[in-house]
Amino acid sequence: MELYNREQISAVVRLDQDALAAVEAGFRALGEGSVVQPPILSMPIEESNGEVDVKTAHIRGNDSFAIKVSPGFFDNPKLGLPSLNGLMIVFSAKTGLVEAVLFDEGYLTDVRTALAGAIAAKHLARPDSRRVTVLGAGVQAELQVAALQLVRDIDTLDVWARDRDRAQGYAERMRRDYGLNVNVHDDIAAACRDADIIVTTTPAKQPILDGAHLPNGVHVTAMGSDSPDKRELDSSVMERADAFVADTRAQSEHNGELKAYAGHAPPFEIFELGRVIASDQGPRTSPDQITVCDLTGTGVQDTAIAGLALSRLKG
């Protein structure tokens, strides 16, 4: 058994085409019915304002699988500690023995989450998409855009965040590090007006994006709602869309944007991202259509990125 730390892992796993292909292959296998993926195990630790999520999946035919343990303790910054942490344990799918522990401190989760957004855009956004709107200014606000550059020729970025100072800092970083034209906006409507792609990256508990904010032809990736108490999209966003895609329907209904329809069926068809990929034919049929993808984070992404990491670490 080998133990690898974040520094070692981040040196070999980056946002690149190989990592994109690995995560996309995991989604494809999920869509083809070749994945065993149990529900997320989630445990709140209310007295410490914390929670722990456990995700896993086995891709049939793979030599290994990963189990990810992801704690989030949201008062930690007051103690000078990161709020998110975690590790992935890689097991042999032949013997069940532990092959490695990837003490990535959440790094691989950040990478595979950003890659999922790029994969959604690859299959759903217009091929000529160049202008992205990001709601939020945290880690995923940066990584989602970086990953999008793997699949689209992004040159312009519009940003809105509740904290304008953070939005300004984010804008400066994106100009410097990615060479983008960046505009900071005081309201969401203005930020979204000319978007080809909108990405929501917030921990919002009430919807922030409305159907009225969507220009014709836009693709929306919502990745902030990953627990029962979070929501970023007003139901009008989903109902205005010509195609609504979830990473998995069950997780979207429990943790994601389909919570809006608890107790009754939504008035639109629901696609799953893996099946869209496996079909090799996206649901977008014209440039003017609106597409929405809800990403809650799946165990198959963790197994896929852990497998890539371990293969590179072993060299």
Question: Layout of SSEs?
Answer:
Blueprint lengths: L1 E4 H7 L4 H15 L3 E2 L4 E5 L4 E10 L4 E10 L13 E6 L5 E6 L3 H18 L6 E5 L3 H10 L7 E5 L3 H15 L2 E4 L3 H5 L4 E4 L18 E4 L12 H6 L2 E4 L2 H6 L15 E3 H7 L11 E4 L4 H16 L1
Parallel strand pairs: 1-7, 8-9, 8-11, 9-10, 11-12, 12-15, 13-14, 13-15
Antiparallel strand pairs: 2-4, 3-4, 4-5, 5-6, 6-7
CATH class of the largest domain: Alpha Beta
State the major sheet. Answer: 8 strands, parallel
Q: Helix coverage percent of residues?
A: 25-40%
Q: CATH homologous superfamily of the largest domain, by name?
A: NAD(P)-binding Rossmann-like Domain
In one word, what is the shape? globular
Report the uncertain regions: none
Q: Which CATH architecture of the largest domain is right?
A: 3-Layer(aba) Sandwich
The counted number of beta strands is 15
Helical region count? Answer: 10
GO cellular component, one term: cytoplasm
Organism: Kushneria sinocarnis
Protein name: Ornithine cyclodeaminase
Pfam family, one: OCD_Mu_crystall
Task: For the structure shown, list the relevant keywords.
ornithine cyclodeaminase, domain 1; Rossmann fold; eight-stranded parallel β-sheet
Q: Can you offer a commentary on this structure?
A:
The chain has 315 residues and is of the alpha/beta class. The protein folds into 2 domains: 2-108 and 300-314, ornithine cyclodeaminase, domain 1; 121-298, NAD(P)-binding Rossmann-like Domain (Rossmann fold, 3-Layer(aba) Sandwich), CATH 3.40.50. The protein contains 10 helices and 15 strands. It has helices at residues 6-12, 17-31, 107-124, 139-148, 164-178, 188-192, 235-240, 249-254, 273-279, 299-314; strands spanning 2-5, 35-36, 41-45, 50-59, 64-73, 87-92, 98-103, 131-135, 156-160, 181-184, 197-200, 219-222, 243-246, 270-272, 291-294. The strands form 2 sheets. Strands 10-9-8-11-12-15-13-14 form an 8-stranded parallel sheet. Strands 1, 2, 3, 4, 5, 6 and 7 form a 7-stranded mixed sheet that branches. The two termini are 15 Å apart.
